[in-house]
Automatic annotation (TrEMBL):
It holds the Pfam family LamB_YcsF. This is 5-oxoprolinase subunit A. CDD domains: LamB_YcsF_like. Keywords: ATP-binding, Hydrolase, Nucleotide-binding. Its EC number is 3.5.2.9. InterPro entries: Glyco_hydro/deAcase_b/a-brl, LamB/YcsF/PxpA-like. It catalyses: 5-oxo-L-proline + ATP + 2 H2O = L-glutamate + ADP + phosphate + H(+). It comes from the Bacteria. Gene3D superfamilies: Glycoside hydrolase/deacetylase (3.20.20.370). Forms a complex composed of PxpA, PxpB and PxpC. Catalyzes the cleavage of 5-oxoproline to form L-glutamate coupled to the hydrolysis of ATP to ADP and inorganic phosphate. Coiled coil: none annotated.
Amino acid sequence: MIDLNADLGEGFGRWQLTDDDALLTSVTSANVACGFHAGDPVTMRHVCERAVAAGVSIGAQVSYRDLAGFGRRSMDVPAADLAAEVAYQIGALEIFARAAGSAVRYVKPHGALYNRCVRDAGQAAAVVEGIRLAGGTLPVLGLPGSELHSAAAAAGLPVVNEAFADRGYRPDGTLVPRTEPGALLDDPERIIARCFAIARGEEVTAVDGTPLRLPARSLCLHGDTPGAAQLARRIRAELGGADVTLKAFA
């Protein structure tokens, strides 16, 4: 059993990056942009309504305040400010999730914030404090062994291990930065093979050939990966055909 998540709602006004409606026919969890790296009220409302109709779990994808850089530029944000901004984003999405008949079920940082919280204990603790400020004990989706998961566990929040279908890994199990070669997998067959290996608990290889085991309850396929909707359909169909159940973790 494994969850399949994707980043959705990554648009702004008339500009749309992800094919949300198509992805929602295949994924089991939707990481919805909350307005800081992408997303706006109309987009958030639409995605929440479609997610509920499709039986997909809604998660808040929180970010640094970086619309121009799509949340992929690292920033030095004071801990108190970051906690408040995380709580603000969760609260904004919660309004639309509840209006659609559901609720925000989990939290996942986006982009630079996600990567920063792998090793930066201070920023990780601020994200967790933001989740607590938002008034709940929401599960935290993130990289196994990260500072984010350590902070969440210390605060009594459930942690959910995530692995990536379409990103390159370093030998230490962290993600290859997008500015370096091997950061993105673009061969559909490699991506499908990676999904099977993770779902079965088998080894995958880092960019240098190092074997890795990626314990994961959730698989991420980026919504802006070329052909993401078609890939998601293949992943769902082929994993299901191999007796792997796709089910939301929250």
